[in-house]
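Quick one - inputs below.
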Amino acid sequence: MKLPVSTHDLADRIFRSHRYFWIKLVRAAITSFLILVLSFFMIHSSGNPAQIFLGGEATPEMVAAFNVRWGLDRPLQIQFLSYLQQVAKGDLGNSLLRGEPVIDIFFTHLPATLSLMIPCALISITLGIALGFVAAMKKQTTIDHLMMIGSTIGYSLPNFFFGVLLIFIFSIVLGWLPSSGNETLAHYIMPVLTIVTADIAIFTRFSRSSFIDVYEHPYINNFKALGVSERRILLQEALPNASIALLSISGFYVGSLISGAIVTETIFSWPGIGSLLVSSMKARDFPLVQGLTLILGFSIVGVNLLVDILHGIIDPRIRKGGK
Amino acid sequence: MDVQMTLPDEKILSVQNLCVTFQQKGKDIEAVRDVSFDLYEGEIFGIIGETGSGKSVTCKAITRLLPDNANISGSILYRDNDLLKETKRSIASYRGSEIATISQDPIGSLNPIKTIFHHLKQALLRTRSDERDYRSRSEHLLQEVHIPSPRTRMDDYPFQFSGGMAQRVQIAMAMSTHPKILIADEPTTALDVTLQKKILKEMKLLCLKKNVAMIFISHDVSLVGQLCERVAVMYHSSIVEMGNVDDILTFPLHPYTAALLAAVPKIGKKETVAAISGDSLAGDVTVEGCDFAPRCPYAKEVCHKEKPPEISVGQRIVRCHFPLFDGVKSAQPAFMNTRAIDADNVLMKASYVKVDFPILKTGGIRDTFTAVNEVSFALRKGEIFGIVGESGCGKSTLAKALVGLNTPSYGMIEAFGQTLHTSGFSYPEYTKKVQYVFQDPLGALDPRMTILDQVAEPLVIHSVCDAKEALLKADQMLTECGLQSSLFHRKPYNLSGGQRQRSLVARALIIEPEILICDEPVSAMDVSVQAQIMNLIKDLAHKRNMSVIFISHDLSVIFNMCDTVAVMYKGSFVERSDVDTLFFNAKHPYTQQLIDSIQSFSSSEIRVKADESHSVHACAFYERCPKRKSICAQKSPKLITCGVSHEVACFYS
Amino acid sequence: MRMKRRYPVSFAASVVLLLLFVLLALVPPPHDPNAQNLQKRFVPPSFMEGGESAYLLGTDYLGRDVASRIMRGMSISFFIALVGTVIGAIVGITLGYLGARYKGIVDEIILMGIDIQASLPFMLLAIAFLSMFDQSFWVIVILLGFAGWEKYARLTRALTLSAYQDGYCVAIQSLGGRPKRVFFRHILPNISSALIVNMTLNFPGTMIAESSLSFLGLGIQPPLISLGRLLGEGRVYLLTSWWITVFPGVVIFLSTLAMSIIGDRVRDYLGVRS
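Output:
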């Protein structure tokens, strides 16, 4: 059945034929906007920033000067618009304490965080999937039960306590490992261990249940009945399906990595973005907190969008509009 | 049978004393007990049984595809090799290349994220042939199973295939490895009747052509009768009777086989189907004597105490203390349909009812799908009106519109002086008079409430009486629907399918409606239970002088239940008349196809796809019609009268 | 019956331990948890050399009784996690139900809210939130409640949708039941087991979230005590007085572990798939 195509219909069709991607894009745009609004209000809702920063004994003149200096005397919507303009130009303001641009401070701290997070993510994902697969294949056996108990302990163990415990044992009692800084490889051992323990537990659980799920599908049995080898079934059929399920939590995982970084970096005095965020928060350096929140928020939105697009591309049911 | 075959002597598979038990929660559950049968080269061997009878487990045991908690004993000899003695690795070499399997769920059996070509390639990789051109070989395979334009279709994904097409792909995969045995586990149960026959015929021809022996598992007696040469009947994990198919179907020796045959509704015979009383035993129940004894009308004392012996009569084997050598005792007197239909008292009238749904077509075009297209009928007092059609024809949508669960986009439904979906319409008043019985009783019952409470609920909702009296009435109603009072306080999960459907009927009838609408109430049930529910609805309708709209995809059920019938195809009624006229004098080609498909195997040719372009205004059946002419491509016929209370929508009837 | 299958000992131990913790949280502590005694600073636990029987788990850098502080900390931490969980559940269930019932644009908005909430990590949201408001008790409780609503909403929405999909909800409607009856008499009792499981499984997460915040000094502020804060404060004295840090940590770990084990068992028992 051929319908006459008007321009309106055409626009409608373009939207609907890629409905999945458009919805994800709109969601990312709305989330980004919310993050912008949130970060904008961070400075304005926290009482009177001048009072907080200048302290109780500031004179009204000093406060007024402060407000003019930071543009806080203008109407809210004007302030928001100029904030948007600034953000669009890549200008996130200067730190109150250090006086340097927020964006520069971010980039000086970024390598330390990335050098910790990337190995952690790689270890957690590969080990988690492998362990989850073993548990799924040995489901309801002693091995599986032991692994599940281990994973329950793993994710019940709060990372801040685990980190502190590691410091106590390996730095204080045994004196083997340095407890703060990121200069040598030895510095990496405890922070990596802290982050990886909980994450492996989560990935093991999740991949176990997705593998069990996939292996319960009739098509796996169908390939078995054809005499296709177990290895081939795993690589050709089970893994692609399970990885689609795993992909769906990787967006969430980036968020949990950031949460983990905030705590772990603080414990081990790691000179990364997480510890920077906590220290600037404590010092009430609001422009810095605001800027960091904005950048981190945007990166999470970006990663999530990327994951969604990737999902749409690998899953033919979405790509071909079957879902 | 269109092809007479003599059995070659070559035994290809011999199953001896096969037992399968599952270890579950520390308990051993016996799924297959002492099953023995032989399979000869090139023959088609059928296994009939109801849900849980162990027929699928038997076949999965042959290629050892059972889960790890299964314990298999006995022997399965494939050309003198005992498959049960093979290692886990070596058994895989038999799968596919020697013994192939086709399962029940065509779409689920294909990996959703891989193309059809990928599936065929995985199968072809098993053949160790030198020919590397997998694409052309795949194309050839798909051609063999009659998939149109295979070259482009093989790059599609399973979700782009219909159930029938997906089942053809499965057959192609199974055949690609040149197996000697094909195990088909209810291969067409998920498909529509007309399609079912076509695919089975293709499978049979393919097997004959390639000299493949087939084990065909089914719950459908008539299918097995038409397809197979020899058959085994299974009941509660063991074979109760085995032999030549014609002998068994015409002269059953085991009471279960006899009862099963009697429970199948037969077209053209206006008698009540003889239901088997009671339910099948649950899987974990073991009885001391014969498994069928609790339900057997011939059972004597010894049947309850001792396992029956295996008796051989020529080619036949039967496991019974008292085989029916003297023929079947004539069952309860046939109940002729002598109900009074009050022709002047029209309870419900539907005029030009049309139901549209918004859909999204590929490429993102927004469109509406017309599920029900200008359907009209009048339901008279005391009438059982059947609507028959294949899945997706709009019969359920129509039924839901009749109870107000769907809103028609056009047309009118009037009943009891009210018009549905208009401003003055009182829904509570209406639901008191028109009740609905759902297809899936497990879904339609609240899983957390006892059935007694649920049956009482309508009385509470409509504040007919107080809670105490409501429970009392519910008690009576459940008893009337044939449930034992020991079950009243159970929750739906702890009931069998038949018991659940009885509760659902009780809940619908407790506020004494004048019209009962049954949406495929027996489609998910075993034959023996199906007969019980059919009889129940019929009896209650008769006793209460109630009108019923009975919806089914199964023409034989409709013939048995109803006074008048409408045949629905793609949203429209294509033929409507009383039951007898429709059976003996069907005018519409679709109705004829339906009747043919349940009667015999050598049915008239069914077209699959249109080979000529036709306008959107063409007759809905144009694509599949064997009698179509040029006018059919241009306009759609309307229902016209062609006899006493007989209407048909066809230009050439 | 089925309760006995998998790690039965750990389950029983978890229940006993949790009951003990709740009891300890409820009874008044032996010392005033905030009373300083500068003569009694850094007293080790009573079972160690130099310990005093009055201070079972020793004292901290201001001479406050560690055991008493843990007990008070437990009651505050448990309370926050509990109320946070309940707030999250109420908001989530309501929104999830509304989405499933009204579908269309309402559903789209709620779904988007769920997606957004799920994609933003708790810590980042907490920092943004806490820099806007005072770090007061109720702000933190509400923050924790909002951190969890999305899971309940997702669950309620999915379960309600499937109950409407040709299931018992439509059946009750066709019997003449009104939407209110359908929800309270049928849907809610049916999804309650899944919700209870979700609550028990989420509870440890909520507790860890609160403890992490307090550990960083961003959560509960003195004079209120929370387990996380005890750990954060004691960390500096790890070299000399490990007991200030380790005991609160052990309590957090054991309570979250016990809750997780109980949650897993309840899920298996009620037959809910996560």
